[in-house]
């Protein structure tokens, strides 16, 4: 059974009763250590993780989870193990040169299980079934899986995702599977998926989809903070979308094509717009609108849900420093990503910097105040500050 399918079954009331008594085979996609813990908590069956595409007769590598005495901290996901009998596996770079232990390479499979090619598709066959440079048999072929993997210290192999799931975000190479695995480690997340979404401007941004564990009320801001502590900024998704369940293909794998369109799911329609209530919020909202190229920004809008990312955050921080003449760190916008929260921090930072409360007026609600009252307030503030 695939991990995604099993995850969906285990959350039901009778989920544990579905586990086999003797042996459970997992395959079809990466298996998480969290899933292994759930299996062990619900049953005593032997668990074997296996890997192999249809082109190599499905099963090519296996990993005995219980018999390996393996330290789960050594790998992000459950290893796919070692090749079965009469099968050869190679991890190669772009020049078809073997990579050393710990270095990511593309996984190639040869041996008795390999197919001859694709029926009536000679070009695709030539692309995926290449000559085996490590065999003296000139007819020997290797199947190019398009999957990324690495050798672990004990010689077993860890699956790291698809070659076509490796994307570049603002110049950095990003493995989507790595973000998914870190996100899935959060106890409040049952399942996670991450995609690179192409915007109209041509830029790519990371979008995370998650299914919370039963009874969990985890919010997007919590998950963003969690990932910020464990991953570099460029690997933290800009948008987090909560789902009741992950879409699956008929054979139980996660169906990424069926994930909701992020453009339609970024800002819930029921979320009301709240205009700035004071000068600090008004200045901040103007900065955000300029940087994000938004028509308007409400005080409770989330910077990252509006399309912000770390590079744009640096522009916001620079403008804040110029507008308010204070020094605040980049991490501040990740920890307080709304205008309302950031305005409070700015005012407090200004007080600490000046040793006074000359910015108290920024937090005063100016709505409904007459010109005379505003002038009197300004005069009082000026007199109080000695300006």
Structure characteristics:
14 strands; 21% strand; four-stranded mixed β-sheet; five-stranded antiparallel β-sheet; alpha+beta; 387 residues
What does this structure look like?
Strands 5, 6, 7, 8 and 9 form a five-stranded antiparallel beta sheet that branches. Strands 1-2-3-4 form a four-stranded mixed beta sheet, with no helix packed on it. By secondary structure, it is α+β, with helices and mostly antiparallel strands. Helix 7 (279-292) packs antiparallel against helix 8 and helix 7 (279-292) packs across helix 10. The termini are far apart. The protein has eleven helices and 14 strands. The chain is 29% helix and 21% strand.
Write the layout of secondary structure elements.
Elements: H1 3-10, E1 23-26, H2 33-42, E2 46-51, E3 61-64, E4 82-83, E5 87-92, E6 105-111, H3 122-128, E7 129-131, E8 141-151, E9 157-162, E10 166-169, E11 172-175, H4 176-184, E12 189-198, E13 204-212, H5 220-230, E14 239-242, H6 262-265, H7 279-292, H8 310-324, H9 331-335, H10 339-354, H11 371-385
Parallel strand pairs: 1-2, 13-14
Antiparallel strand pairs: 2-3, 3-4, 5-6, 6-8, 7-8, 8-9, 10-11, 12-13
Helix pairs in contact: 7-8, 7-10
